[in-house]
């Protein structure tokens, strides 16, 4: 319409123009009309793919320049798709660049990668103190299908109010096929613990490491004495009246050895088949045999065998043979295998007489004679 009006204005003066001028004027007017009817961006859009221009802008800068560039102007209905395409190309370019960097950078150590999930324990070593619980945990955790918390959590006896999620957070990461374990020896003698564990899961497998209660009490006293040198004598703590043979069952070192009484509490919440008893004495003389039974109880393949152990004569206790990747064998800490305090022989016999009926009852309950005499 603008071109028509312009021609109509110039027509009265056409007789004054030469033929050449008229031709040039016509061409100029035609060009102006053409530009007005067909803008440059429309021509570019209709005559070819807009992506080359977009790619140029993308190569020169970033996504913000693409949005601001005047050389990549598209109709509204196609602008979004073009931007998305450009973003995709940019992401592909970035991915390619990152890939190159990764090839030039050393991979992170395997230990820093997080595999598996933290799960509540499938099995717990619940006791007993000074029975050999640390040895059992250290021996069984070399099995590839076992992962265990490194320290005693004391969740069910001291930290129960923190909740199960706090407890779960203390567990190691495990794969679906692996067993999660922890050990806290005081669980066995804590009245509330069996009910609390059964509330978490009635399918939890329980391991109890037991030992001659007299020897266990002396070992317990020896450990306490090493931390408290001014402790009264063993006899003073163990007896209310030694002349009459009256034992003080309120002393924790004595009370722990009443296995039958503690087991009665556990059997209210768990069947006997779900509790495995490890002999603390055989754990020293035949660690492979005891670990074989533990592996069977946990449903594991027997991988921990006699080839993993050797007897340390200095400590009087078995140690794990050194792995190929280590320079030294793995033995338990200095507190394990400690020489016991010498106790009067008469006091020992009095304690054996005291424990004998409890031991017999315990043998009957578990169906096994541990021969503690």
TrEMBL record:
Its EC number is 2.8.2.-
Q: Which domain of life is it from?
A: Eukaryota
Topological category with respect to the lipid bilayer = Single-pass type II membrane protein
Could you tell me the keywords of this UniProt record?
Answer: Disulfide bond, Glycoprotein, Golgi apparatus, Membrane, Signal-anchor, Transferase, Transmembrane, Transmembrane helix
Look up the record and report any one GO term of the cellular component aspect: Golgi membrane
Per the UniProt entry, the disulfide pairs are 319-331
Molecular function (GO) terms listed?
[heparan sulfate]-glucosamine 3-sulfotransferase activity
Predominant localisation class: membrane
The record, for Pfam families, names: Sulfotransfer_1 (PF00685)
Compartments it resides in: Endomembrane system; Golgi apparatus membrane
Q: Which residues does the UniProt record annotate as the domain Sulfotransferase?
A: 122-356
Which parts of the sequence bind 3'-phosphoadenylyl sulfate? 130-134, 211, 219, 336-340
* Active site (catalytic residues): 130 (for sulfotransferase activity)
Its family remark reads: Belongs to the sulfotransferase 1 family.
Task: Please state what the protein is called.
Answer: Sulfotransferase
């Amino acid at each position: 319409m603008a071109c028509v009006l312009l021609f109509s204005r110039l027509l009265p003066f056409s007789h004054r123009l030469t033929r050449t001028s008229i031709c040039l004027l016509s061409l100029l007017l035609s060009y102006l009309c053409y530009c007005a009817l067909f803008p440059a961006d429309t021509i570019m859009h209709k005559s070819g793919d807009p992506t080359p221009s977009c790619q140029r802008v993308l190569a020169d800068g970033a996504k913000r320049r693409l949005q601001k560039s005047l050389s990549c102007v598209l109709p509204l209905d196609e602008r979004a798709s073009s931007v998305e395409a450009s973003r995709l190309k940019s992401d592909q370019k970035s991915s390619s660049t990152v890939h190159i960097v990764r090839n030039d950078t050393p991979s992170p150590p395997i230990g820093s990668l997080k595999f598996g999930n933290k799960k509540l324990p499938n099995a717990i070593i619940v006791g007993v103190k000074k029975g050999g619980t640390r040895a059992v945990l250290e021996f069984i955790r070399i099995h590839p299908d076992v992962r265990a918390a490194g320290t005693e959590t004391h969740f069910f006896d001291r930290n129960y109010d923190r909740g199960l999620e706090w407890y779960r957070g203390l567990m190691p990461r495990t794969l679906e096929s692996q067993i999660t374990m922890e050990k806290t020896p005081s669980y066995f003698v804590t009245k509330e613990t069996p009910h609390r564990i059964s509330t978490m899961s009635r399918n939890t497998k329980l391991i109890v490491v037991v030992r001659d209660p007299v020897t266990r009490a002396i070992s317990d006293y020896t450990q306490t004495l090493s931390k408290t040198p001014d402790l009264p004598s063993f006899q003073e703590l163990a007896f209310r009246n030694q002349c009459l043979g009256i034992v003080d069952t309120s002393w924790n070192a004595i009370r722990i050895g009443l296995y039958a009484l503690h087991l009665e509490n556990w059997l209210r919440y768990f069947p006997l088949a779900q509790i495995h008893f490890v002999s603390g004495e055989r754990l020293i003389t035949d660690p492979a045999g005891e670990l074989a039974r533990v592996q069977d109880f946990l449903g594991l393949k027997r991988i921990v065998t006699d080839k993993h152990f050797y007897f340390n004569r200095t400590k009087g206790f078995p140690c794990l043979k050194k792995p190929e990747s280590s320079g030294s064998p793995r033995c338990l800490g200095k507190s394990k295998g400690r020489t016991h305090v010498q106790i009067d022989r008469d006091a020992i016999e009095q304690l054996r007489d005291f424990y004998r009926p409890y031991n017999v009852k315990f043998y009957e309950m578990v169906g096994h004679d541990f021969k503690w005499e």
